[in-house]
Amino acid sequence: MRDPEEGVRPPSLEKLLSCEEGLALARQHGRLLLREALRLAADRVRRGELSGPEDVSARVLRDAARSLAARPPAGPRPVLNGTGVLLHTNLGRAPLAEAAREAVLRAAGACDLELDLGTGNRGQRDKGVRDLLTRVFVGDDPRFGALVANNTAAALLLALDTVANGRPVAVSRGELVAIGGDFRVPSILARSGASLLEVGTTNRTTLADYEEALAAKVGAPAAVPGVMTSAPAAALLKVHPSNFRIVGFTEEVDLATLGALAERAGVPLVYDAGAATPVPHPRLPGAPVPREALENGATVVTFSADKTLGGPQSGILIGRTTFIEAASRNPLARALRPDKLVLAALASTLELHVRGETSKIPFVGLLETPAARLEERARLLAAALGELGFRAEATPSTAVAGGGSGAETTFPSWAVAVTAGAHAGEDSGEQALARALRASRVPLVTRIVAGRVLVDLAALPSPDDSGVLEAFASIARDEGSKPISG
Fold first, then answer.
1. pTM value?
2. Of 44, 101, 291, 471, whose CB is crowded by the most CB atoms within 10 A?
3. CATH fold of the domain at 80-89+365-479
């Protein structure tokens, strides 16, 4: 049946924008955003979707005002991470410590980024951060220094360009990995100007393979960026496999053996660690420790600051002083440098490491939360959800560190498992429930296991439990006794 309101012609946008209420909305939200909201509201009037006692103009203005009020703020939105993945790439990896957030605000205005306040002369923009990095990772050892780039790929790009621009770099075929959406080791090599010299096979690479790559071959053709070549390798590259594993009949050359070979051959060894920690951690088995890698012969170690370090997105280079000085002079270093907000957050995070207050770093605090505490919270949450009408129970779970920290970085956790549509006494589908939770005022991101929605508490600090309850309560309020529509 045709709606009697369908086909009603709303006033022109200019008339709506120039009326008293339209001008007030424009001052609050901006004229461009208001114009688009009015246009969409007018379309709904024409389709007969907006009815009410007011005249057409009032209806259009009311709907536009409502949609603008509900519009989320620009930029990434905060979410509740109920996935059980502590370093979730899609959710921004490591959450920043409170001190790091405060540091970002302090640096947001005018600051002494490149000013020496003592002399009044120009200062070095990242000196403080570089000093903190060396202190955290290598102590006061003058043999080593540090540099910061804007992400891990940039750090590796800068390292390779510094040691082997226009020359071959030997890397095992088993380490030519693709991590995440766009991080491909061969592509980074090609962009750095170095050429790829593959050694070994996918599952087996021996020391002899690297030795052959380093052997000089008289009359070999010049290296071509991104193309295999028979010219001798000018550098060695070892890549930590992250979450990638080859099992079965395998062989690889460990870092210490490779470092000794690089030392004998007089060539640099670049180690892309991916995620690294200042010291070994029991819940991060196999996570690279840069100092150990350097002592084993690596010229430079590259890794991400927004993974197990718990800082903002940036790429770290820890290496021999001579290499760091050369990399600092590389024109790419300026193109790949991070901004002041990243430097502020990174410095603050490193300060927490220096002071031994790593528990204040969210990732570390979550990683070290006892399973018994997670179980207690899960049982309380399940009981509270039951009072809201949901069929929920506390259940053991397995969480992961995530962020490329390694396939072995799993640990016991607890979750609340919710049967979809249980508050209505009907099964409306777990996908619909998960979607409804993501549509909450503060979205709750979950995972689905065996037909139930799981809210894993491993990546949720305890203050977020109230947000979890509110997300479910909003569904109960909105749906009442109706099942959630798929």
1. 0.85
2. 471
3. Aspartate Aminotransferase, domain 1 (3.90.1150)
